[in-house]
Design a protein that fits this description.
The chain has 166 residues and is mostly helical. It contains ten helices and no strands.
């Protein structure tokens, strides 16, 4: 799935959680996202900023579902996951034996293949620790890191009923 498809499929509560986090922890990212999305739609950012917070979030979510906003949507997902979900990313990398910086950022090259047994065990453990929808969103984003994704991860996401976005 591409980023705009993820935003189409994801539970709106996850988008609200992400935007709330940015507003509380990194307002510059939030403001930049609004400005970029508004510019992409040929609007002035002030037009969005004058809306109520709920209307801003709804507009942002609706706009991120557009194919033309795929790049900014992917950047927002990555920024959120790398900042707000570091423990989940680190535990996922640990479970698969992928070297990382302790915050979930991979050190070196991504693996060519993922071990199915390690993936299954890691998913089984982490889906019970973290919000399954957020964890599923992360799995989709991780799978975007290589062209076409990893077949074993794609199959896991598609076949495991616990891994749903909505």
């Amino acid at each position: 799935m591409k980023a705009h498809e993820l935003y189409t499929a994801v539970d709106p509560a996850l988008v609200t959680e992400m935007l709330d986090w940015f507003r509380a922890n990194d307002r510059n990212v939030y403001k930049s996202a609004v400005a970029t999305l508004a510019g992409n739609r040929k609007l002035r950012p002030v037009f969005i900023q004058k809306k109520s917070l709920a209307d801003q979030y709804a507009w942002i979510h609706k706009t991120l579902k557009i194919n033309a906003c795929d790049t900014i949507g992917e950047h927002i997902l990555q920024a959120y996951l790398m900042s707000a979900q570091q423990s989940m990313l680190g535990m996922f990398c640990d479970g698969l034996g992928i070297p990382h910086d302790g915050k979930g950022s991979v050190v070196g090259d991504l693996p060519k293949n993922l071990d199915k047994e390690r993936l299954d065990a890691t998913v089984d453990r982490l889906v019970d620790i973290f919000d399954p929808k957020m964890f599923t969103l992360y799995l989709h984003c991780f799978n975007l890191q290589v062209p076409g994704g990893w077949p074993v991860l794609t199959e896991k996401i598609e076949s495991d009923p616990r891994l749903t976005l909505a």
